[in-house]
Amino acid sequence: MVEVWGSTLSLIGNIITICIDFILFDAFVPRSKSGKTYGLILAAGIVVSTIFSILVGNNLGYAFKIVFEVLVYYVISIILYKSRVDRRLFIVVTIYAVLYSVSYWSDSLCMLILGLSYEEYVWNIPLYSTVYLLRAITILGVSILIRKFHSPIIVGKQTRAWVPLTAVFPAGTLLVIWQVYTHPGQQQTWQICLLILDAVDVAALLLLDHLEQSALNRERLLAADVRAHVQDENIEALSQAYAGQRKMTHDYRAQLSTLSELLETGEVEDAKAYLAEMKARQSERILLINTHNAAIDAVLNQKGYQGRQLGIDLRFRVNDLSALRLPRVDVTVVLGNLIDNALEACQTLKEADRWVSIQILYSHDTLSISIINPSNPVQIQDGEIPTTKAEPLLHGFGLRNVRDILDKYKAEYTISYEDGRFVFLADWPDTDLSKQDKELLHS
Question: For the chain, what are the domain ranges?
Fold first, then answer.
């Protein structure tokens, strides 16, 4: 009967412990799975861990027990959560160590207060079970509160200066836990060391959270600055286009008046010469690209003239974009960044090799974008090109802005480098998210 109750209590405790682990994980790391999928994978982890505890237990040694339990939690976290390897391992080990310390010190405190030896405490089934369950429920409640008041941080895969440091803490903590298991005669000493390490780990985790958040905020500000710069360029291009159009209209009226006077006075040859001059001047002002969308025309023509000045052959293929409902700011930021990247890549090549193929077609409520340009070899990692410029944190946001915008609209896109050419392809659903954007701004 005692063995049955012990196994039942162990099973309940194991389930609650895994639930606590991943409630705390929710507080620090965003999920990659949700709903039934999340529940099924978590249930599978509970089953595997429980079977191991019942059938294997400590028979294979404490070192194996530690490694297996941490490995189970780590594998589940890989499947269910999005984070870097170092951060995920740090969180798994820290939670494991803190729960282990809480279990030891709560039992020790209970034995001290009641004046019981370890054997008397363990074999007092009602007392031991009550403490065991109360401890599990209390930790569960605290974990829920932590999740409520601590939001998970979405960290990218960027290399951080503090990443090597985060590997030291879990390694040291696991080593001390192993010492606790393998030196029962010095257990209290090692438990004190573990308790100190727990405090250090928690403080370090919170500090690293702060550093990650600060780095992310800085990157968002830099990305916003890049986006604002592109928008300023687009607004300037649009203003110049409208100003040019107004000047052309004014000049055209004056030219018609002069031409009319020449014809009325019978000066036909002078009229022909004047008309030829008008045609020559007009060809210098004519739009390179006309999509019937003023904002997009302004950007594409601005980039077209910029390409001419740089000796780069821009080859456009466009159709009528007048029916496009996508916000003009988002579209122009995407096109501006992509073409800027292509122009920058071409500037490092010989003049004969400088060209950019730009295809922007609207059909069946989808905006299809294709940007192809020759380039020196580049490495593409997770949809990004690591910058080779000095101060990398200050660069590389153009393509990230493009991805952020396209992800917002659930657009499909691919980035590749093949045969000396950089290729960006996207199919962008024509969806107006202005209402959703307003809701996000108010929230």
Answer: 2-222, 290-442
Please give the chain's pLDDT, 443 residues, in tens.
555 665 677 677 777 888 888 888 888 888 888 788 888 888 887 787 777 766 665 556 666 777 777 888 888 888 888 887 878 888 888 888 898 899 889 988 998 888 888 888 888 888 888 888 888 889 989 999 998 888 887 765 555 666 666 777 888 888 888 888 777 778 788 888 888 988 988 888 888 888 777 777 776 676 666 666 666 666 666 566 556 666 666 566 776 778 787 778 878 787 878 777 776 665 444 556 888 888 888 888 888 888 888 899 999 999 999 899 998 888 988 998 899 889 988 988 888 889 999 999 999 899 999 999 998 887 765 555 544 444 433 334 567 778 888 988 989 999 888 888 999 999 999 976 655 444 443 44
Q: Which structure tokens are listed for 414?
A: 């691919």
Q: For residues 80 and 22, what is the distance between their CA atoms, to the nearest angstrom?
A: 9
C-alpha–C-alpha distance, residues 268 and 255, integer Å: 15
Domain covering 290-442: architecture: 2-Layer Sandwich (3.30)
Q: How far is CA 88 from CA 35, 83, 95, 219, in A?
A: 21, 6, 11, 22
Alpha-carbon gap, residue 208 to 26, rounded angstroms: 17
Which residues on adjacent β-strands are paired with residue 314?
356
How far is CA 327 from its chain centroid?
22
The pTM score is: 0.57
CA distance 304 to 321: 18
